[in-house]
């Protein structure tokens, strides 16, 4: 029996690659292989990361392609309609990186509240810091707004609730009121049905939703105006959800106590693109590394491989997107 050609278009953890290569019916072609660019003509299975974009042109060329698995949650780098037209199954690995992304979102908010990065830069710049001149903001028992009640939102809710005794306000029009499987039933929170109601009361606003037609520009000039003055905004989700020109204007007006962005329109964020934003000391930018812990790399890579192998075997694993 001939082996099934599976191409890996980006770096995967070595344990995940070993799992793939151990499958007797799989011919694994890694992104370091000289023949990696032949995947449109040869691949039946494809393991990708966010840097690989698949649209109509790619699916039209990939006539043998049956299954694509994207490591991680977001699939905005894949044209799902084009995949359906060409009969390609698309999967992701939901929930595997939730804890890591929630951890970073929580960290960004705390660093902003206590001005950790500002003080570190000042010390490294040779300043003599007097603590009386560096007041910061405690986030203990504050109102925290969570936009998105999926896996990441739930893990983040636990951190705010149990570590900081926060008052949680949650918004997600796609999670049913009686959904008991998403784990929110045991978490003390207030569910609102209008985003405006969350924005008006929150000291910290966390975004954890995918980038879709509905969420693009979700937090724009109008929404920022509704938010509390000197509140904190954290987006570890996707660039495009926060209107960046509106954000720059808000920073100029000193609207926020702090802003943490692990997701930007241009990634990774660089000085030539974001120099005006980074002139403001109360913004932290990181290169979309919420899920990039050693532990998550291993777990999500293995999950992606297992999902691919199951789908190629005719099973229906979790994470089906198209």
UniProtKB/TrEMBL annotation:
Domain D-isomer specific 2-hydroxyacid dehydrogenase NAD-binding positions: 107-290
Domain named D-isomer specific 2-hydroxyacid dehydrogenase catalytic: residues: 7-318
Keyword annotations: Oxidoreductase
GO cellular component, one term: cytosol
Species whose genome carries this gene: Capronia epimyces CBS 606.96
Record carries keyword Metal-binding: no
Gene3D superfamilies named in the record: NAD(P)-binding Rossmann-like Domain
Domain of life, source organism: Eukaryota
Transmembrane regions: none
Family, similarity comment: Belongs to the D-isomer specific 2-hydroxyacid dehydrogenase family.
Protein name, per record: D-3-phosphoglycerate dehydrogenase
GO molecular function annotations of the record: glyoxylate reductase (NADPH) activity; hydroxypyruvate reductase [NAD(P)H] activity; NAD binding
Alphabetized Pfam families for the sequence: 2-Hacid_dh, 2-Hacid_dh_C
């Amino acid at each position: 029996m001939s082996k099934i050609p599976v191409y890996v278009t980006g770096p995967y953890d070595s344990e995940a690659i070993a799992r793939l290569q151990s499958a007797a019916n799989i011919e694994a072609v890694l992104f370091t292989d000289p023949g990696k660019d032949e995947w449109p003509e040869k691949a039946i299975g494809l393991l990708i990361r966010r840097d690989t974009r698949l649209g109509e042109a790619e699916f039209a060329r990939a006539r043998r392609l049956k299954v694509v698995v994207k490591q991680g949650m977001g699939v905005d780098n894949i044209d799902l309609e084009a995949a359906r037209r060409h009969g390609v199954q698309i999967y992701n690995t939901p929930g595997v990186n939730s804890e890591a992304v929630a951890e970073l979102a929580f960290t960004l908010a705390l660093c902003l509240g206590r001005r950790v990065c500002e003080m570190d830069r000042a010390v490294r710049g040779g300043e003599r810091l007097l603590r009386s001149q560096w007041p910061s903001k405690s986030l203990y028992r504050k109102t925290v707004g969570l936009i998105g009640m999926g896996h990441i939102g739930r893990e983040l809710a636990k951190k705010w609730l149990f570590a900081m005794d926060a008052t949680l306000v949650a918004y997600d029009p796609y999670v049913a009121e009686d959904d008991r499987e998403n784990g929110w039933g045991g978490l003390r929170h207030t569910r609102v049905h209008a985003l405006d109601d969350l924005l008006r009361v929150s000291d910290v606003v966390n975004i954890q939703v995918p980038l879709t037609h509905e969420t693009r520009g979700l937090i724009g000039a109008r929404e920022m105006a509704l938010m509390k003055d000197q509140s904190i905004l954290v987006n570890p989700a996707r660039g495009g959800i926060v209107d960046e020109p509106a954000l720059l204007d808000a920073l100029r007006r000193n609207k926020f106590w702090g802003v943490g962005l692990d997701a930007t329109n241009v990634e990774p964020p660089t000085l030539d693109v974001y120099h005006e934003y980074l002139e403001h000391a109360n913004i932290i930018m990181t290169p979309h590394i919420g899920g990039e812990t050693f532990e998550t790399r291993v777990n999500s890579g293995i999950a992606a491989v297992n999902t691919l192998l199951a789908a190629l075997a005719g099973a229906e694993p979790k994470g089906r997107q198209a």
